[in-house]
Amino acid sequence: LLFFLILIIGFLSSDFICSQFAKPFFKRKRPFLTRKNIYYYSRNNFQFLKKPIKKQCVFSFPSGHATLSGYTSSFLSFEFPKASPLWITFALIVGWSRIYLGHHYPLDIIGGYILGLFCAIIFYKIYIYINKKLYEK
User: Fold this and answer.
1) Which of 29, 61, 63, 73 is least surrounded by CB atoms within 10 angstroms?
2) What is the pTM assigned to this prediction?
3) How many domains does the chain have?
């Protein structure tokens, strides 16, 4: 129960850090707002954009999806190392999909993975600390 509680608290915290602090700090625009001749997926269809679209949206760096998949796969890999290829594959597929759909640059994904890994390390250490304290008694 403690494992899943810390996993979820860390997941929510990672999302909050990414969306409320990192994205507003870096203010990097999404590819479909700045690039021409790219494919973009929105509202259940692909579009080929000959020019950037004018649309109000959240910033791109770091990717929230990559942050959360990086956090989850790292946290689970720390606890279940034999299954880490599965968790890492999941995170890589999520990151690739964000680039493929035209919502992120590769650096956005890498930044998200780094932020997710950083949060996973912190929350896993918290989990280990609390777990030791509970079982010392």
Assistant:
1) 29
2) 0.84
3) 1
